[in-house]
Amino acid sequence: MSHHRRHLLEKVQVQVAAAAALAIVYFLIAPALRPWEPVGATAFVPMGDYGRFVVFAVAVWAISAGCAALTLSARPEGALLATLVGVAGFSFASGPMRMLLWRWEGNFGRLFALLSAEVLAMAVVVLGAMIVIVLVRAGLHRLLPKVTWKNPALTAKSTDKQAGKTQVMHAAGAVIMELAVAMLLLVITFRSTDRGQIAFALAASFFIAALAAHQTFPIRTVVPLWFGPIIMAVLVFALGWVGASGGGSGPVWQSALMSARNLPLRAALPVDWLALGSGGAVAGFWLSSRMKEAKPADD
Questions:
Q1: What pTM, to 2 d.p., does this model score?
Q2: Mean model confidence pLDDT for the chain
Q3: Residue 116: C-alpha distances to residues 41, 174, 217, 241, 256 (Å)
């Protein structure tokens, strides 16, 4: 198969898997997991809905298995991207953050602490989804070895320790650059707390930031860039907790808290950071990988 046809097949597979995952979640799964309020926000830990969170996790893992099967001829990041697009169905079906703020009025410190915990719990769910993708693709590779995606970079992959150290340095540099670029873009794009504005700001900012970071630092895995939005989300909610609890002192803390108040980032729910932030980052890495692979073929 030619390089162009292989790239086209990969693109079609990821798009079909993403569209199917989004439709299934938005129309079937998300309504079943909605809170009892008609316009309630999709949040599990602050509401003590641990049973619903388990169902959420199982649903994400099932979606990831389906996406892995549908994107067998695509790179693994395509399956993860399709899965996170599916998770975005929970975000699109959610009510605004203000519903939680009304419920937790007078105890915002605890709310933001619980939201930080939910971000980390959702990160664990996605790590589980990545494991599911690897296992499904490995099993299908045994049945359909000629169909499974083969990474051209693996043939020239170095295994010496110096190469490993270089990758660690590149990963650190990529995350730092991603967070810096994303924060700059979020300041520009995150202008209101409307759900549509939140979706656009998170997805676009981390897409561009991850694309730029991967073009600058040749990392081999999407994990550092995927985890960047998780880091930022935890920091944002932590600042909210410190501000609401009256903790912190000195000009550094005051400056940080003032910046946090002026930027409406805390209007984004944990599921928004996961699906739209991390999803945008994975999309940026996926596109950058395709661009880098296409360059030698075009020469």
A1: 0.88
A2: 86
A3: 15, 23, 29, 9, 18
